[in-house]
TrEMBL record:
This is ABC transporter permease. It is a multi-pass membrane protein. It comes from the Bacteria. The chain crosses the membrane at residues 15-40, 66-93, 105-125, 150-175, 187-207, 213-233, 254-278. InterPro entries: MetI-like, MetI-like_sf. Its main location: membrane. Keywords: Cell membrane, Membrane, Transmembrane, Transmembrane helix, Transport. CDD domains: TM_PBP2 (cd06261). Residues 69-275 form the ABC transmembrane type-1 domain. It is found in: Cell membrane. Belongs to the binding-protein-dependent transport system permease family. CysTW subfamily.
Length: 289
């Protein structure tokens, strides 16, 4: 039987914690939802304040919108794949290392996040441009005869985005791998499983929640990137965020810019829902296994 006194105490504690978090929830909710609702309303208004659907008709019938959408998805997917390829082995190495060594390496990994994204982006511009450090070093060593096109293109933009997002991907993956019971891995090794088999059948499935969380962070975050494509893309890489800025700065068309913002928001929501569904399916598969 349930203890009435214990139930009352649990309700009192629950109410206390709700009361503590309510002001922050209200503040964050209002500050987050108010701009979204304003943009949503602007997307259905003309310059004279009349209700219309022409803003959506304009952006959906424009080839520039679909081109920007394709560039946005390509950048996000390539950034995600690169972060997975680089981040999973790095997280595995950190999880296998001694705690003190892992903590020191994590500090080095997190250092870029303590610097302004604008400073870091211009730093990559100095490194990647035709007369930059990388091309100058390669030319001096006789490796190349002409400077490599490393900036003002898709490649340079991708490098800058991976540099920013890799630490954010590594952290949840490292946390998930660190929580894996070492006895499970040692038991598999004692039964004859090699290193790669342990990684494929034990470590990766048990750390799938961290990989999924990191992947969702990387993909959704990069959908709205602006500074890195603007600086390293040199006007040749134009995702939706840059398309929105140019619609405002060039045409002062708040309706179309707001409609593009709503399109980007819908894209983020779809991506979030897909990642959550994939994580749920992966978690169920791990439990059944």
């Amino acid at each position: 039987m349930n203890n009435p006194g214990l139930l009352r105490e649990q309700k009192r504690e629950r109410f206390f914690f709700i009361a503590l978090t309510a002001p922050a929830i209200v503040l964050v909710g209002v500050s987050a939802m108010a701009p979204v609702l304003w943009i949503l309303s602007q997307s259905f208004l003309t310059l004279t304040g009349e209700a219309t659907l022409s803003n959506y008709e304009k952006i959906l019938s424009s080839g520039l919108t679909w081109s920007a959408l394709g560039v946005t998805l390509a950048l996000s997917l390539c950034t995600l794949v690169t972060c997975v390829v680089l981040g999973v082995p790095l997280a595995l190495a950190l999880a296998s290392a001694r705690r003190r060594v892992a903590n020191r390496v994590l500090i080095l990994i997190m250092l870029p996040l303590w610097t302004s994204i604008l400073v870091r982006t211009y730093g990559w511009l100095v490194l990647l441009r035709r007369e930059g450090v990388i091309n100058t070093t390669l030319a001096s060593a006789g490796v190349i005869d002409e400077p490599l096109p490393l900036v003002y293109n898709f490649t340079g933009t991708l490098i800058g985005m991976v540099h920013y997002m890799l630490p954010l991907f590594v952290l949840p993956v490292y946390a998930a791998m660190r929580d894996i019971d070492g006895n499970v891995v040692r038991a598999a090794a004692s039964l004859g499983a090699g290193f790669w088999r342990c990684v494929a059948t034990i470590i990766l499935p048990l750390s799938s929640s961290g990989i999924g969380s990191g992947s969702m962070i990387v993909f959704i975050y990069t959908l709205g990137f602006f500074i890195t494509p603007a600086v390293l893309g040199g006007g040749k890489v134009n995702p939706i965020a840059i398309r929105i800025e140019r619609t405002l700065s060039t045409f002062q068309d708040w309706g179309s810019a707001s409609a593009l913002g709503v399109l980007l928001l819908v894209l983020v929501l779809i991506a979030g829902a897909m990642f959550l569904a994939i994580r749920r399916l992966a978690g169920e598969r791990v439990q059944h296994a």
